[in-house]
């Protein structure tokens, strides 16, 4: 079991614990804002399960039916997470509307808030783990899970402040208003999760900063070639696919050209983890006098 899958299993476990704690806080107080927080935790568990399935599939090696690997399974998971976030927001808005129409008193507020706060602290710690490891392992599923959990942390903090204010002032409508704000917040989160995932499914190029680094590595390791052009890139989960044309002198032997390609590939894979390189060699008369000039 690789580290990505282990972290995904951890997300499921943390999500179930947090859901139980937040449900207890809601049952003690009757607060619709705390109910909205608990409903969001149900989505956390569902998205953690989706992420677990996705990283398990993505970790499978290439096969005859999937020669480029299974990396895009993580993007599908992230899209599912975004959809579930939207569903949760709709459910929360419905609860908020009912509470607005018929406000209910909040009981055992401070005990319930203390319990909810404990769940929020656990979420914050795990969110930090997910975002750090998601970036390090280049896992869209873990990053999407972490970003969603981050909105849960902020919304839990806002709910705690708002419920406390509702109890102190006696303004019960604050409870419903906070639940609605939680729904809007996670809708915003869902949009960003879906947007990032669709970009991966649509084979967006890697960021310009990474392309600049790739160009520099190619230029520094292509001694003997003339130029490199028509560089194209895309990302699929933890893998980055890069292809370009390498122009060499027309009289150069196939063996020498192959050695240059090997040197460039080794440098790219050493500097950029998960980089898959395809190089098309061309004779000198194909030079475009643009693109990457060999140092």
From TrEMBL:
Membrane topology qualifier: Multi-pass membrane protein
Biological process per Gene Ontology, one example term: intracellular zinc ion homeostasis
Top-rank lineage group of the source organism: Bacteria
Occurrences of domain Cation efflux protein transmembrane (ranges): 11-202
Domain Cation efflux protein cytoplasmic per the UniProt entry, residue ranges: 207-284
Keywords: Cell membrane, Membrane, Transmembrane, Transmembrane helix, Transport
Primary location group: membrane
Annotated GO CC locations: plasma membrane
Annotated TM spans: 7-26, 38-59, 75-94, 106-129, 149-171, 177-194
Compartment(s) of residence: Cell membrane
A molecular-function term among this protein's GO annotations: cadmium ion transmembrane transporter activity
Family listed: Belongs to the cation diffusion facilitator (CDF) transporter (TC 2.A.4) family.
Record-given protein name: Protein p34
Organism: Salipiger marinus
């Amino acid at each position: 079991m690789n580290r990505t899958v282990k972290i995904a299993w951890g997300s499921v476990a943390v999500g179930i614990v947090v859901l139980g704690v937040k449900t207890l806080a809601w049952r003690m107080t009757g607060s619709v804002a705390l109910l909205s927080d608990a409903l969001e935790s149900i989505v956390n568990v569902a998205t953690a399960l989706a992420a677990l399935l996705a990283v398990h599939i993505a970790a499978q090696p290439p096969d005859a039916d999937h020669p480029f690997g299974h990396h895009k399974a993580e993007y599908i998971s992230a899209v599912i997470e975004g959809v579930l976030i939207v569903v949760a927001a709709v459910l929360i808005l419905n609860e908020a509307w009912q509470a607005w129409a018929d406000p209910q008193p909040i009981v055992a507020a401070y005990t319930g808030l203390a319990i909810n706060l404990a769940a929020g602290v656990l979420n914050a710690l795990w969110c930090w783990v997910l975002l750090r490891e998601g970036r390090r392992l280049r896992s869209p599923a873990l990053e999407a899970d972490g970003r969603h959990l981050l909105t849960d942390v902020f919304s839990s903090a806002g709910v705690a402040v708002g419920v406390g204010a509702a109890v102190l002032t006696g303004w019960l409508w604050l409870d419903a208003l906070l639940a609605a704000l939680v729904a809007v917040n996670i809708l915003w989160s869902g949009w960003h999760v879906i947007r990032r995932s669709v970009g991966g499914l649509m084979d967006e190029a890697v960021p310009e900063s990474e392309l600049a680094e790739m160009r520099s590595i190619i230029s520094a390791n292509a001694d003997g070639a003339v130029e490199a052009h028509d560089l194209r890139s895309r990302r699929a989960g933890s893998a980055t696919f890069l292809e370009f044309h390498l122009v060499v002198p027309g009289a150069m032997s196939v063996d020498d050209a192959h050695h240059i390609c090997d040197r460039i590939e080794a440098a790219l894979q050493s500097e950029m983890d998960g980089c898959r390189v395809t190089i098309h060699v061309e004779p000198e008369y194909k030079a475009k006098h643009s693109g990457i000039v060999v140092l």
